[in-house]
Structures are given as structure tokens and as C-alpha cells.
Amino acid sequence: MLFSKKNLTKKISVGATLLLATFVITTTGCTDKKDTKTKSTDVIGSDAASKVYVPPGKMDELYAFMSGGFSGQVSAYGIPSGRLLKVIPVFSQNPENAYGYSEETKPMLQTSHGFVPWGDAHHPQLSMTGGMADGRWLFINENNTPRIARIDLSTFKTVEILEIPNTAGSHGSPYLTENTEYVISNTRFSIPQGKNTDVPINSYKKNFKGVASFIKVDKDKGNMDVAFQIMLPGFDYDKARSGKGVSHGWSFFTCYNSEEEHTMLEANASQKDKDFILAINWKKAEEAVKAGKAKDFPSDYVHNQLDESKHTAFSENRKTVKMLDPKDVPGMVYYIPCPKSPHGVDVNPTGEFIVGAGKLASVIPVFSFAKMQKAIENKDFEGDAQGIPVLKYSSVLEGEVEKPGLGPLHTEFDDKGNAYTSMFLSSEIVKWKVATREILDRMPVYYSIGHLLVPGGDTKKPYGKYVIALNKITKDRYLPTGPELTQSAQLIDISGDKMKMLLDFPTIGEPHYAQAVPADVILKNQKKIYKLEENKHPYAIKSEKETKIERKGNDVHVYFSTVRSHFSPDNIEGVKEGDTVYFHATNLEQEWDVPHGFAVKGNENSELLIMPGETSTAKWTPKKTGVYPFYCTDFCSALHQEMSGYIRVSPKNSNLPLSFSLGKTDKK
Amino acid sequence: MKNLYGKKISKAIFISMIAFNIFLTACEKEDTKDKKNDKTTTTQETSTQAVATPSEPIDDGKGVGPIKSVTIPTTLDKKLVEEGKKIFEMKCSACHNIDTKKVGPALKGVILRRKPEWIMNMIMNPSGMTQKDPTAKKLLGEYMTQMADQTIDEKSARTILEYLRSNDTK
To answer: How far apart, in whole angstroms, are the C-alpha atoms of residue A212 and residue A165?
Structure first.
């Protein structure tokens, strides 16, 4: 267990806590297993089954959108049943529906480093209006090759991916402002910035810098654009939240490694008793940009957007961003000291309280926004960090939650003034009252919780009712599946005074953050089909009459269609070895839930899955002479098995002209 | 996901399965109370169904769906014919020819065979029709393919009707 792959993975994300973590896990493991089991049944409410049972034909109360972690995707679940509804491909290719394989979707995974087929998805967050989820979009960040994706919740499709320049490890993201004015991002890994990036690693303190990014979101269409970045000391910026209500206009980032070490961080970056929460006055930053205080900073990043009318994503290379230097904008950024190696920073529903979670700390500090404003006004500083004022801890502190447990990570809020903090090391959720910071209840979770979510728990008016624990380790909770085990979520009832465990359910990838929202917020915008009349794909055909095949040198373009249950055309000849064939399939269906699939034998590519009214393109480069069948892969009707055709590939020197047909039977 | 007769029908079967399950569950509950009562319940269920069939509306040839009556002028509206032809080619021609059978029946003479309301209901509500309309039910048995719902509104269905009329009007 100690040296399992899972623990090694955690090493990266949890850094310094690993030794302690494994120690706790080991000791837990050493205690009698029966003991653990007894504990778990103790906390299950006796009416748990009825609370999570959604009868056949009925729908769930809430949607939950879960980070797929290292799968790179997002999954949508029904809550309270824990039923998986859909895996939405975002940062990784998905052969099931040709995401990242079809010609139309390949551009979505384009970056300044080229085509990147995988990503490390982290924190999904629903778009907000007035501090409430509005059901329009879901944003999620990618940590490895820093990017932000936007998923359209009317289609559950990734419609935009923006690479974040000058950034490594986009971890504190997307953490939107209350009207989705900005998606924010930071740099978990500081890196050399500017033109000369070929520097010795041990020149870290001199050359390495962090960056905070503010990405503007178009109010109506949702399109993203990097509005400005702020150059920061080379600490490791970790988690983030934007203010709301009274603190709207500010964003907060935690940071560790204020030691600015570049090796053996688990020890070297854990030396100081306090690191920081960085507070950014983004309204001030906006003004500074308007006043021309930002410099054009050479950058290299790619912006990918889906044109829905063309069913096609397009990539655009970008070469510059507006960069702000805190020296030029006094009053824009401050550091708040926070014990010790803080991870999560969360803002309560009113926006007044900012909860830091030092993963090596023995308390949970709760900061007051009003006190912070006062401290800024009175210049109540205890020093500065590379020119950025450091506010006095005691002046900003509202109070501390004492003895909360071990390894506090993240906090969400309910509708009754309570906070729920996940404790990684002691593997529990701690419920405490925001006003008094008094601990009210504890719920053991199985095992090693990272994030947690309360439906609407980051909004101005949380929905409450449940908390979901997103656990890193499942060990003995499910039927074993070899060395690699499932990830896990646990649904807990918080409607009463005491938390009640209701349900375990597996998740895909590592469930970092997740958000849940009442189903009607999402249902009202659901799209069922793409209208054929609105299809502007250059290779679309709107009726079988338009069926055609074109040769352009070695490229062969097949304009074809699908309908229950045939392809038009279904007999094709005149293709030669060495040709590149583009199958442009338009699904002529206009009925919900009638996609057609397309696959051709031996294609070094995925299938296509074409939604009603959509056009999608599979590229095929046949290498051998022969007759190849193609067929529909998604059971579509009584005559689905008959939905097939043949394409003939002739030798390179063949003179056979291109031809195609449908329904032409043998005359001889 | 989809069963042999397309999605809508599969849902119907599914619902009837649920109904059957509920029925069974009900029986089980009854069973625990009194075994004799169980029989009574079964008979009641059957008799309700038996009564339900004759009470179904008499087939007036207009089909089942949103269209209750259409007024058809004696002359053809050429503009409607043109529009209808365009929509027909985009949304219908993959399965229907005018003169020959394709996936569905040839549409020559359809105006003479069916009432205009029936035609428009078939266009707008194909699954409802193959479930409830006796003529459409028979056609499903004959062609073995559920006609696709191409999301066609009343205005568009009317233009398609006019196009079909143009093929049958000299």
C-alpha cells in the first residue's frame, strides 16, 4: 500500500504531507479492519437507501459535474442516485465520440506545443450571474499544459479551450468572479519569464516568477480572452477563489514555497510557519490596464473555439498579453500571512469571510474582508515580500477554528451559516459554524478526502442538503480491480444537525473539485438536435441529392449522409492506395437521440458518432488494395445491421475513375 | 440502447414493462395480505383493459396528432409547393421517392389514399401514429422501419402536403 501507484501520484499533488499521510494510512491499516467497517456502518443513516433511491423512469434532483482529474475529462452525475449520466470529453481524446479524432474536433486540443492528446483536468465551475449558477457554461482548468475549457451546458460539449500563456501548473483556476466577468488562473510552478528562459534551475530566486491571469468572459457568448496578467514573486500559487457580495472585485490565491526552493519541496518548502494568501484587487488592475500601465508582453498561446454552425473548431495563435507589474500599481496586490503551506481558500456566501486551509496547520484561520480593508487603509503591514505589502496576520484575522483535525484542505458552505472543511490526513469532514468557528460535527470519510462540495456551496445562496466527499483513496470500499482501483465520491446528508452517510459511488479519474446544481437550472437550456437548415459546414449535404465525391490530387472528399438506415452513397469505387479519404458524414435525422455511427475497416482512427443534423469528418488513409466495408456503429433501427456499405481501394497505378451509387442492384 | 422498433417504441415497451413490474409488485403486496385477493386484482386488471379497447375513438381517417382539420383550396399554391419541395428534399427524400418504394412507401397517390390531416399528422407525429393509428400501425408492420421524426412544424408540414398534392394533381 505504501508504495502503490496511487500514493506516488498523491506525492505530486500533496507534496509535503505525503510522509504524514502514508503514516496515518499505515496506522489506519494496522488497526483491525473490522473496526473500520463497524465505524462506517455506524454513521450510515437507517433511511439512507430511500434518500438515494431514484425509481426507474424518474430523474435525479441535481446534476453534479465532476472533474475527471487525470482522465482529462468531466463527468456528469445524477444526485442523489450517483448515476453516471455522461463523460464529457474536454482535455483528452475520446474515441467513443471522435472528440480529438474527427477533423472538426482536432483543433480543440491544439496548443503552442502542438497537438496535446491528454490533459489533467482539475476544477469545474459553473458560470454565475449575481453570484448564482446560471446553467449556461461549465469552466474547467488543465494543470499540465495550462488551459481553460468552456463546456456549453445546452449541448454538454466542449466549445472553447484557451491556453494560458506564461504559466506552468494552472492550479488556482477557474474560480470565476460573481458575474463571470473573469475566469482566473495562477502558476503552481513558477518559471523563467520573458525572452531568456534558458537559465540554470538553481538561479530560481533570481529568474523564476509567478503570474496571475484574468481571463475576460464575453457576457452573452461566453468567449474567453486573456485580459491581463500580473507578474508575481516566484512562489507556488495554489488554490484560489474570487470574492463575492462585499468582497466582489477581489480575488484570492493561496501560495506555498514562499521559501522559493526548487528541489525537494516537501521538506524545503515547508520551513516557514506561515506562507501567504495573495489578495488581488482586480477592479484596480482593470483601471490600471485602461490607464495604459500594462506592458505588451511577448507570449505564445493558442485559442480554440467551436463554430457551432460549422460544427468545427478553429485554432488561432496569439502572441502577446497585457502584463502588469505590481510596482506600477500600488494598492493592487497584498499578501495575507497564512499558516502553513495553505491549500484551499474559500469565501463564505456573504463574501465577508475568507477561509484559509493550511494543510500542515493545526488551525483553520478565518479572515475578515472588512478587517483586511481597514488594515490596508491603516497600512497595517508586517513587512513586504519583494515589494508587495504583507498585511499583519492579527489585523486581518477574524478568528481561528481550533483543533479542526489534521490536514485541512477545502471549505464549502451550506444555507444555514455552516462551513464544511475536508481534512485529508484525518480523513473526515468537519462541520463548523462560520459565525462562532465552533465545531459542530465530524464525519469520517473513506479515505483521504481532497475536495468536497455542497450544491451551490460556493454561491451567494447555497442549496445545501448534501455534502459530497471526493476521496483520493478507496482501498477496501469496492470490489477490487487489480492494482488500479476506482476513485470515489461519498454522498452525505446535511439536512439535519448531524451529518449522515448515504452513499458511495465511483468516479472517473481523480475527482478534484466538483459542483452540483438543481436539475432545472440545466434542463431549461437542453438542446435536442442540430437544425439541418442551420448547418453551415462546408462539406455538409442537406439531402441525398447532394451526395458527391471529389478528388483533389491524392485527397478524396466523400460528401455523404446517414439516415435510418442507410448511407448515401453506400458503394464507392476509384479510391487508390496512398489516397487520403475524408468521409464527411451529415446525419440527416432531426429526431432526438438518433445519432448514427461510422467506422471503416482498418482505419487508424476512431469511429464517428454524428448527432442529428451534425456533420463530422473521419480521415482514412488506406494502405492496401481491397474492398473495405463500412457500417453504422450506433444501433439505430430495426435495419441497423443493414446500414453498411463498401469502398473499393485499387492499386496506385489504377485508372479506375471515382464513382458512387446507392440502391443500384446487379443488372447481369 | 435502441431496440428493434426505434426509440419511441422502445420507451413504450419500457413503460409497459415498468407498469408490469408495478403490477407484479402490487400483486406481491396483495400476496402477503391475502392470496385470494390477488386473483381478484388480476381479473380486475384484465377486465379494465378489455373494456378500454372498444372505448377508443373510432378511426375517422384523420390520424393521431396535432392536426384536427385542414382546409384545402381547389387550386394549388405554387409558392407552397416550391417550399414544400425544398423541405421534402432535405428531410424526407432520404427515405421516400415519389414514384418508387425506397425505405418508406412511394408517395405518388398518397393524396388519393389518405386524408390531408392524416398526412400532416404522419409527418409531424410519426411515432404517435405508428402506435395509435390503425393504418400507420399496419404500414409499420409492412415496412418494418419506424418513420423518423424530422422535427417538422405545422407550417412546414402544410408545405410538404402541398408538394405531395402537386404530384397527384393534373
So the answer is: 10
User: With an 8 Å Cβ cutoff, are A564 and B95 in contact?
Assistant: yes
pLDDT bin (cut points 50, 70, 90) of residue A271 is confident
Which residue from B7, B14, B102 is facing A594, i.e. has the nearest CB?
A: B7
Distance from the Cα of A479 to chain B's closest Cα (Å) equals 27
Q: Is the pLDDT of residue A224 over 90?
A: yes
d(CA A153, CA A614): 17
**Which of A565, A568, A591 to mutate against chain B (most B CBs within 10 Å)?**
A591
Q: In what order do the strands lie in the sheet with A514-518?
A: A83-88, A74-79, A62-67, A514-518
DSSP letters spanning A611-642: -TT-EEEEEE---S-EEEEEE--S--STTGGG
pLDDT in tens, A623-653: 999 999 999 999 998 889 999 999 999 999 9
Chain B hits for A545, CB-CB cut-off 8 Å, are 89, 93
Is a pLDDT exceeding 80 seen at residue A208? yes
**In the structure, what pLDDT confidence band is assigned to residue A665 with cuts at 50, 70 and 90?**
confident
Instruction: Please name the member of A529, A532, A568 whose beta carbon is closest to the beta carbon of B90.
Output: A532
Contact state of A543 with B15 under an 8 Å Cβ cutoff: no
Question: Chain-wide mean pLDDT for chain A?
Answer: 93
| Count of residues in chain A | 668
| Across A126-142, average pLDDT | 98
**Residues of chain A with C-beta less than 8 angstroms from the C-beta of B1:** 634-635
Rounded-to-integer distance, Cα B61 and Cα B53, Å:
18
> In chain B, which residues touch A (CB < 8 A)?
1-2, 4-7, 14-15, 18, 21, 89-91, 93-95, 102-103, 144-146, 148-152
pLDDT at position A273, please? 87
All residues at 6 or more sequence positions from A307 whose CB lies less than 8 Å from its CB, including other chains: A313, A314
Q: What single letter denotes the amino acid at residue B75? A: T
How many CB pairs below 8 A link A and B?
A: 76
- Chain A positions touching B14 (Cβ under 8 A) are 57
Q: Do A581 and A554 touch, CB atoms closer than 8 A? A: no
Kindly report the backbone phi and psi dihedral angles of residue A609, in degrees, each rounded to the nearest multiple of 5, phi listed first: -130, 110
Instruction: For residues A334 and A388, give the distance between their C-alpha atoms in angstroms, rounded to a whole number.
Output: 6
pLDDT at A24 over 90: no
Give the tens place of pLDDT for each residue, A571-630: 999 999 999 999 999 999 999 999 999 999 999 999 999 999 999 999 999 999 999 999
Say if pTM beats, i.e. exceeds, 0.90: no
CA distance A97 to A86: 12
Contacts of A643 in chain B (CB under 8 A): none
CB contact under 8 A, A543 and B5: no
CB B136 within 8 A of CB B122: yes
In order, the DSSP letters of A361-418 are -SEEEEEEHHHHHHHHHTT-EEEEETTEEEE-HHHHEEEEEES--S-EEEEEE-TTSE
Note the pLDDT of residue A639. Answer: 87
Instruction: State residue A441's pLDDT score.
Output: 98
Instruction: With CB atoms and an 8 Å threshold, state whether B94 touches A57.
Output: no
Chain B nearest C-alpha distance from A531 (Å): 9
